[in-house]
Every structure is written in structure tokens, then in C-alpha cells.
Amino acid sequence: MNTFLLPDLGEGLTEAEIVRWLVKVGDVVAVDTPIAEVETAKSIVELPCPYAGVIEELHGEAGTTVPVGKPLITVGDPDGAAYRAEERAGSGNVLVGYGTSESSGAGRRRRPRVSERNMAPAAEKVPENRVPLVVSPLVRRLARDAEVDLRALTGSGPDGLIVRRDVELEIARRLQTEPQPALPQPAVVQSAESRTGLPELRRTPMSGFRKAVIATLSRSRAEIPEATTWVDVDATALIDLRESLRSATDPGPGLLALMARFVVAGLLKYPELNGYVDTEREELVQYDGVNLGLAAQTDRGLMVPAVAGAHALTTRGLDAEIRRLTASARDGRLTQQELTCGTFTLNNYGSFGVDGSAAIINHPQVAILGVGRIIDRPWVVDGELAIRKLTQLSLVFDHRVCDGGTAAAFLRFVADAFENPASAFADL
Questions:
Q1: Cis omega before residue 48 (within 30°)?
Q2: SS (H, E, C) 32-88
């Protein structure tokens, strides 16, 4: 009998929340069989089992938070030597997303003996303990929240892949066939909270991701003496440039990629804003290169994946990487490196329909640039009133790394590039 402990997840992570079990008690598993989907402060991942045998105990229900080093599952050994040989083939040192290592011995790895009732060719049926062909964690979460059994669905994607539409159609079918709920009964009177005199509506446990966000933002507010500066910008020429790059066969780089190109250029010109404060050594550190963080709203909350080596990418390269990271963020497939390597953050909060924001710096970075929505507004051009595409840029910076003059110069550089993008590109 073997007990699999939650492994060290790296990056200082100390716990994970069990999102869903991929096995149940009594299931037969082989080495590296995915057993659980867990959510860390960084991403959602599947954990592979380092042992072969029969699942005898699951240590925790879905939604339980398990500390690193605590029991996750217990695997029994009904066939003795066969399973022990399989265990020796795996390292037992499981890293998230990598599984166990291959055996270094001369012998070949042996698979566990499984009775005929548990055996089935892949083309005929899917084992009862595994969900068939689901790639996206977003689809899994949608199904879990709606209590949809994925094993009962027929995927409409390639090779039977279950996609989001399959789950949504099942939810819609239920709504059409299920009887209407009875009229709500009067709520039970709850005891009032002492300070406000109001009853509590609900309590929601914090996820590991939310705990990490709170820790980062709290540390930022506690440690960084921040200041904010902003400017209104005529982005009409930037919008025109974006449209001119489109063609019938090529959509061209997106607007965010164009903005990112100018932000990276500004950071190379004013590197004080692209670094961190080493408080132990009392030194201001500047990076030789830019990993541009991009705030992305997801079902799990706000994430800030970074385009590594953004300074070395073309505008088209930036566009491709931004799209990839955004898709990965929404699917819960960002790596820890992508979530932690940023040196500066660009926040397009205009996508939420707001004009401005005094954002919180993403510690240990020292600055964050926000872009508001771009809308038609009256603007004076060459002494005449005109309707132009206006936006607002706001820069929040750590006053320890520079004075207001440097921050204003960087902000003005980016604003000028927005207003005269063709001229800015000529100088890049």
C-alpha cells in the first residue's frame, strides 16, 4: 500500500485546491495515470500518479485545500510483485505536468495486471473512471459547475472532442425538460452581524489563486510609495494605422500589439521603470530586456502573463504571443514562468468600458501603465474643434526608482507614439 503526498509544486507554492477527482475508490491505475485536477495560485493542472494499483482512499473532497506534503490518495497493491515492479519503474518524484521519470535500470517497465472487466480497447469504450476527450479546463469547469456528467456526452469536436458548445447544449436541454421550481419559501431569518446589523448573504472560501493575488497586492500597497500621473491622448492616427494594416487575407497586428510595441520602446529608453528594488542590498536594479506583462481577465480572476523577451519581437511577433497568452489564461493553461516573469505591466482596462484607473503595481515590479477606452470626443486640432478618438493613459510608478520627471517623460514618449505612430515606427 502506498500513499501519494501532494508534491512540491515549485515557485514557493505551498498548497493546492482539489478541483475534481479523475478517479474513484476501486479504480485500477497505472504509473502516470492522471488522478486529480488541482488549482494552485498559478494555474489548473492534472497530477499524475507515481504508483500502480487500486485506489483505496481519496484524501479530501473536491474543493478541499491540501498542503504540500500531505496525503492525496492511497493506492493498494492487490497483485504483489507485479505492482511493486511498476512502482520501481517510476521515480515517485512527481512534478506537476511532467509525471514520473523512466526507469534507468536494464529491465523493462511492467504495466499492472488488470482484469478483463476493466479492460477495453480505446476505440470501443472509455474507462468508467476517465472523462473522454476533454482538453479545455474551461469546459471541465463549466461542466462541473452545472453538474453535467461529461461521460454521458458525445463530443462534436474532432475525433469526438468535447467542446464548450456540447456542455452548453446539455445545460440548455436540461432547462427545457426540467420542471419549473416551486415558488421560493420565505428565507430563514439569520442572525445579524454585530457591526452592521445585517445578516450575511453568503461566505465563499478563498481559492489559492485569490490568496496569492491578495498577498501580492497587499505587499505592493505596504512596501511601495507609489505615485500616479496621466495624460489624455488623441489616438486617431493609431486607429487609422491599425486599419491600414488590415487586408483581405491578413488581419494584421491588433491594437494592443501596437500599444505594446511603443511601451517596450519607452522602457528601453527609460529603464528605471523596468526593474525592481532590492531592499536587502539597498540597490535599484534595471533589467537588460523587457518581459511585458499583460493584464487578462479570466473566470479565475485577473491574471498577468508576460511576453518574455518582448524587446526582441516584431509587432507581428508581439501580436501572436499576446493572443497565445490570452487564450492560455482563459483556458487555465498558463505556466508558472509565464505568470511570474514579467518586468512591467500594460493594463488595457478600457476593455471594461472605463476611462481611467489608478492601478496597483504588480509587486515586485515598479510600474504599471493603464489604457482607458478609446471613444469619440471633441478635440482641438490646429485651432479647430474636431471629433477625434481620445483615450487616457495613466502611469502608476514606484517613487523609489525615479522622480516624477522620468515617469512623465516615459508617459509622454508613449503618448506621442500613440498620436504619431508612423513617425514613432520610423525611429524604432
A1: no
A2: CCEEEEEECCCCEEEEECCCCEEEEEECCCCCCEEECCCEEEEEECCCCHHHHHHHH
> How confident is the model over 167-185, as pLDDT tens digits?
878 877 776 665 555 555 5
Catalytic one among 59, 311, 363, 399?
399
**C-alpha cell of residue 321:** 504571443
- pTM of structure: 0.61
Going by pLDDT thresholds of 50, 70 and 90, the confidence category of residue 219 is confident
- What do you get for the CA distance between the two ends of the chain, in Å? 63
**C-alpha cell, 104:** 534507468
- Record: fold of 2-122: OB fold (Dihydrolipoamide Acetyltransferase, E2P) (2.40.50)
Q: Are the CB atoms for 150 and 127 separated by under 8 Å?
A: no
Please indicate whether residue 311 is annotated as part of the active site: no
360-404 per-position pLDDT tens digit: 999 999 999 999 999 999 999 999 999 999 999 999 999 999 999
Domain ranges of the chain: 2-122, 131-179, 209-427
Contacts of 104 (CB under 8 A, 6+ apart): none
Architecture per CATH, 209-427: 2-Layer Sandwich (3.30)
Contacts for 56 with CB less than 8 Å, ≥ 6 apart = 1, 25, 74, 75, 76
Please tell me what DSSP assigns to residue 31: T
Q: Which fold has domain 131-179?
A: Dihydrolipoamide Transferase (4.10.320)
Can you tell me the distance from the alpha carbon of 86 to that of 50, in angstroms, rounded to the nearest whole number?
Answer: 9
CA distance 229 to 396: 7
- Is the pLDDT at 111 greater than 50? The verdict is no
